[in-house]
Amino acid sequence: MNFALILFLLTLATGVLWFVDRAWLARRRAPGAKEPAWVEYAASFFPVLLVVFLLRSFVAEPFKIPSSSMRPTLEVGDFILVNKFTYGLRLPIVEAKVVPLSDPKRGDVVVFRYPVNPSQDFIKRVVGVGGDVVRYEDKKLTVNGQPLPQVRDGTYSYLENLRFETLERFVETADTGAGPHSYTIGISPQAAPVYPQNVRPFPGRENCDYNDRGFTCKVPAGHYFMMGDNRDNSDDSRYWGFVPDDHVRGKAFFIWFNWDDITSFAFRRVGSGIR
Hints:
Oligomer: single chain
Strand content: 35-45%
Distance between the termini: 30 Å
Shape: elongated
Radius of gyration: 23 Å
Order of helices and strands: HHEEEEEEEEEEEEEEEHEEEE
């Protein structure tokens, strides 16, 4: 269900009703006559819906994290805000960019439409931009022949499906093109860097080579290579391919609270920035 479309239609409907009443119907009512209920509702809801629609479309949009693929950066139940104008202004609903401002950079955490099913939103980290050669071998990430530095930072544990998972935590540093950007990733030593049998056909598949130690992909122009920070528990570009620029919805920048299940309304992550 496209919430943006529903919000747009509700805003349009209440706006039309309010305008029709102000332009024509109000003049025909007897002096002192009470407004019909539908006019009161339209007049009350239209400005609220309009403000919400404009904010979600052009300023910031909320999302909830549904999986562990971005741990330890983002946890299940995190409610985040996504900046809608960092990369340029896009038309609501169709998401077509009309005013380009910048492009996603390596290291950015980005919300985008899932290429396999564009009605579904995914969130991952950009590890490669158009023209980059991304290599992931033996759990080490290399971009354009340059290994990304990794510094061990202890371990990270979390509960998933009634089982505790423990990851080796590293601080990884990417070259954004404008300077270094560091963030935290998690690696499971016992897992393979990629499972070639799980790789699906995708546009540009010929740009990638897979083996038991990892993969190498050249990112097409106008596309991005995305990976989850939970490197061994993430369904990402290594399995379904590259993300076109017109699928990008915005840059994640803020955690406003965490609600990890229906019995726990936790504010422990309120106000956390996203690196």
